[in-house]
């Protein structure tokens, strides 16, 4: 992409606060963006070939939305965690194996997309995020859901298409969790904590495509309680 084209994009971004440059084969984060650290509210660089996010990302202190879907990122810089106003972070379809240690400092984060990466565990850093609404961890290589998950504040947790065979009973302690997606994993029925049904806030549990028949779920203790929540929620949105 020529310099004049980039310049035009930068001028537009200065006025609108939005820099969007998708599907242009970019191999690196445009350095010129640092001229706009105080202007930008949204950066969307999806469908490129960016391998590295530079430390200067931490300077965009007014950024609310960062979208880097379908790039080639293998790691994220610690500086990313300085973005105190960031509400939306989409990193679907990259090669991430873990999140920076300080990720829990992204205190405004509401929506996090990490589908289609190489995560092997549910990142414990997510438990420090008090405003998190939706977390998408589908299509990773996660094998179990640990005890720390009980502190997760999310309303919706998507773990579809992983390799999960174990789930901590503490998932039923999540104070705000309403939607739990566990489709196409490796769960035996005996490994699904019954407290999800009998003693949680969860009103939509999606478990198709595991190692048991869905109708067996209906025989579990607590299923009636779950159905009460499910039906009440459905009525609310009907």
Automatic annotation (TrEMBL):
Q: Which domain of life is it from?
A: Eukaryota
Which species is listed as the source? Herpetotheres cachinnans (Laughing falcon)
Gene Ontology cellular component annotations, sorted alphabetically: cytoplasm
UniProt name for this protein:
Leucine-rich repeat-containing protein 57
What keyword terms does UniProt attach to this protein? Answer: Leucine-rich repeat, Repeat
Classification via Pfam families: LRR_1, LRR_8
């Amino acid at each position: 992409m020529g310099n004049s084209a980039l310049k035009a994009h930068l001028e537009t971004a200065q006025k609108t606060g939005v820099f969007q440059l998708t599907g242009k084969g970019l191999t690196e984060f445009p350095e010129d963006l640092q001229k706009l650290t105080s202007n930008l509210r949204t950066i969307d660089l999806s469908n490129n070939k960016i391998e590295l996010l530079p430390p200067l990302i931490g300077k965009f202190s007014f950024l609310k939305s960062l979208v880097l879907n379908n790039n080639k990122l293998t790691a994220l810089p610690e500086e990313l965690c300085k973005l105190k106003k960031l509400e939306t972070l989409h990193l679907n379809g990259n090669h991430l194996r873990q999140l920076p240690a300080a990720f829990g400092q992204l205190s405004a984060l509401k929506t996090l997309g990490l589908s289609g990466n190489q995560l092997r565990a549910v990142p414990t850093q997510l438990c420090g995020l008090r405003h998190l609404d939706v977390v998408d961890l589908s299509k990773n290589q996660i094998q179990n859901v640990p005890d720390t998950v009980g502190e997760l504040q999310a309303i919706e947790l998507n773990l579809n298409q992983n390799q999960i065979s174990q789930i901590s009973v503490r998932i039923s302690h999540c104070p705000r969790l309403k939607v739990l997606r566990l489709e196409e994993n490796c769960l035996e029925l005996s490994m699904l904590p019954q407290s999800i049904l009998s003693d949680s806030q969860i009103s939509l549990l999606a478990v198709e495509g595991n190692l048991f028949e869905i109708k067996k779920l209906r025989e579990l203790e607590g299923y009636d309680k779950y159905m009460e929540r499910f039906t009440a929620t459905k009525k609310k949105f009907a």
